[in-house]
Amino acid sequence: MYHPLPHHVPCIFFFFILLDVAASQPLGNYCPNSTTTYTTNSTFHSNLMALLSALASNATRPNGFYNSTVGSRNSTAYGLFMCRGDVSTSGCATCVSDAGTNILKLCPNKRTADIWYDNCMLRYSDVSMFGRADQSIVLNLYNTQNDTQPARFMQAVGNTMGQMAAAAAAGDRSGRKFATLEANFSAFEKIYSLGQCTPDLSVMDCQSCLGSAIQRLPGCCYSALGARTIYPSCNVRYETYPFYNSTAASPPPPPPSPTRRPPSSQPPVSAPSEGRKKHSSSKVIIIAIVVPVVGIILFIAILCCVRTRYVKKELTAHLTDVSGISSDESLQYNFVTIQAITNGFAPESKIGEGGYGSVYKTNTFRESFLVDQM
User: Fold this and answer.
1) Mean pLDDT within 223-243
2) Domain ranges, ordered by start, for the chain
């Protein structure tokens, strides 16, 4: 039997000691008396059976969640299941199959029903419940043993579960809204927490649902060493012993860092302003280096050309000085001069015979000349 709370919310309290309820046994179920019933072999009954079969067939999905709709108009059956985030796919499939079988036994001919297990929950109705945070039903379970420091303990529970709820609402890459968190309470005591929402809820709705579930714990289960709040759309739990698969419950590793691609051979169509500034700076540096170098090379080349021309000019002038002959006019000497420089046509100055007569050697004007005696 269910007894309404002062807030007119159906509430079920299950008391247990340290041992968990067996996974094959339901934690609780809800079959509202206010809803209408269906008759066996009716259209709704056929749709409900097809719905439960579809849920069981999809119980091995990686995110442990599935919803479906069968039928139309007044005979439509809506349903979903959610497995606990740390449960294996095989464990999920077993739980969903058991839930589908037992919900028909526990809630015969009901057009709306909910059932909760340790590893999963399943619900169906003739009204859609998808994407909506449902807190109309609450199921609380708690450990009858209490902590010796209740105020400090409940504060630690609240802090731990608040962080856990934020992580669960954010979700993971698989699509689950599930998280676990443990925290040290004393040198010999830890707090283990778990929270989960149906993945069809938004982050805000999930956060709100989990927050409401956590706020109920001090009222129902103050100082209890373990407790749960279960809504149709979310649930939270804490214990002072490990009760979940820590390996399966740990978040997936972050995606690998993207491999840096080699620079493209073509310049990008557009680049950030910072990139353009760097590119412009590179141009300035290149120009600042190249222009002086080219200028120096040109200056050296011009200097070499000028120097070459100057050397050639000096060499020409030097050769002119050496020859002492710059025109035919310089070859003309009078007879007295020739006689003087050949020592009066002395035999020792004669060096041979030419076509025009004897050839004498002279030594005057610092250089030697050949004089052809006319």
Assistant:
1) 97
2) 3-249, 332-372
